[in-house]
Write a structure and sequence with these properties.
The chain is an alpha/beta fold and 413 residues long. 39% of the residues lie in helices and 28% in strands. The strands form four sheets. The protein has a six-stranded mixed beta sheet, sandwiched between helices. A hairpin with a 3-residue loop joins β16 and β17. α3 (46-59) packs across α4 (77-85).
Length: 413
């Protein structure tokens, strides 16, 4: 089945907002074994929208239209869908009542223009939006089934998963099972991973496993996708391939599937029932922020401190040195652990050698030992900070998993 995605809106077409909705939809459809063949972006112009709908209806079996379901004059999706499908618009009383309850529950008054969101093409199928007022709907245009979705990301994501994808799978009529296996790694670049894994899919007996990569510095996603006739066929073909990926990428893999680096760290801290405190210099507090989004109650991450002013940080801990060095970083790690009374501490300090070069000092301290390393980064401030934060978090993981603490990364100078 051929699927097209049409994203609407002047703000998307002009680049004022990043079209992350398309990326999300395309990825989720791929995971479900549905192929997106075309992607189109159209502004808020009735004639252009109509042409894009007509073109898509001639070449795609299913089309997802995103955006244009709001209450304002530039929201045109319902109107153009009615024209393209040869229908008139009608007021759907059931959705109007849902909207009225939505506003009453929030203590707000529904304005007259909101009724526009309940105007749908006569023959269309209403698709529920449980968290917003933009009603989704589906309608046939020529040979294609069109699915209209809201532009608000959280509304779109829920509707796509619960309503659109099940309908697309039913529409495809294919009796297939799909799976996407993802490995998350830090320290190895895309080109080296591709070279190391170039023949790995040959381990699939039926040759139905597809290898892919998605690099988003400083992490790399290695993806194995498979379409099969049964779960047993997936298991038979996927297992030898994923086992080889684990063996080849080894220490670089920090998580699989939906887990994250900070999620893995939190789980490791829980397993050994250890607490940690963190000190950060020039990292914008990103290390603590990432762990605290997982450790919402602060059970493991007890305290953190972050500063762009080294003198203030050092004075607070009553230390005398104020020049960045690995020795000072180790002193800070020890002092923070003792001061906050935690089992472990992590101290991270970025020391710029030049505007585009920096040494990053990373130290883990416990009652029994201290481990340190220096990461050497090159790039702009944003890249150096991202790389430093990722390396520091990966060092925490390596500390608990007894892996080499100072293994060189592909991203170091």
């Amino acid at each position: 089945m051929k699927v097209e995605i049409i994203c609407t809106g002047d703000e998307v077409l002009s680049g004022k907002i990043i079209n992350s909705n398309f990326a999300h939809m395309s990825a989720k459809l791929e995971e479900a074994g549905l192929n997106v063949i075309w992607g189109t972006t159209v502004g808020d112009n009735k004639e252009d929208l109509l042409k894009s709908f007509q073109l898509a209806s001639e070449r795609a079996d299913a089309v997802i239209v995103n955006g244009g379901l709001g209450p304002t004059v530039d929201d045109l999706s319902q109107e153009v869908a009615a024209i393209a499908s040869g229908n008139e618009l009608e007021l759907r009383q059931e959705w109007l009542e849902i909207m009225e309850k939505f506003f009453i529950k929030r203590g707000r008054v529904m304005t007259e223009n909101n009724k526009k969101q309940a105007m749908l093409p006569k023959t269309s199928e209403l698709i529920n939006n449980p968290i917003g007022t933009a009603c989704g709907f589906a309608v046939n245009i020529k040979k294609s089934r069109f699915f209209f979705t809201p532009g608000v990301p959280r509304e779109l994501f829920l509707m796509l998963q619960d309503e659109i994808i099940p309908r697309l799978l039913e529409l495809s009529g294919e009796d297939i099972v799909t799976k996407l296996k993802t490995f998350h790694s830090y320290g190895i670049g895309e080109s080296r991973a591709d070279t190391l894994l170039k023949d790995v899919v040959n381990l699939s007996p039926d040759n139905i496993v597809k290898l892919g990569f998605q690099a988003h510095f400083p992490q790399l996603e290695t993806k194995l996708s498979i379409r099969a006739n049964s779960l047993s066929q997936i298991e038979t073909n996927l297992k030898p391939v994923e086992d080889e990926v684990r063996k080849t990428l080894g220490n670089y893999i920090f998580a699989e599937d939906k887990n994250t680096l900070e999620g893995s760290i939190f789980e490791l801290l829980q397993e050994v029932n250890k607490t940690i405190s963190i000190s950060e210099y020039l990292t914008w507090g990103n290390i603590s922020k990432r762990i605290s989004t997982i450790d919402k109650k602060g059970d493991q991450l007890k305290f953190s401190m972050s500063s762009n002013n080294l003198k203030a940080l050092v004075d607070n801990l009553k230390l005398s040195k104020n020049k960045p060095s690995i020795e000072l970083n180790e002193e800070i790690a020890l002092k923070v652990r003792e001061f906050y009374g935690t089992d472990l501490s992590l101290s991270v300090m970025i020391d710029y050698q030049e505007k585009t070069e920096a040494d990053t000092y990373i130290t883990m301290s416990s009652e029994n030992d201290t481990k340190s390393r220096v990461g050497k980064f090159i790039g702009d401030e944003h890249r150096i900070t991202l790389g430093s934060v990722e390396m520091a978090l990966d060092c925490v993981r390596r500390y608990f998993e007894n892996l080499p603490f100072d293994e060189k990364s592909d991203f170091e100078r």
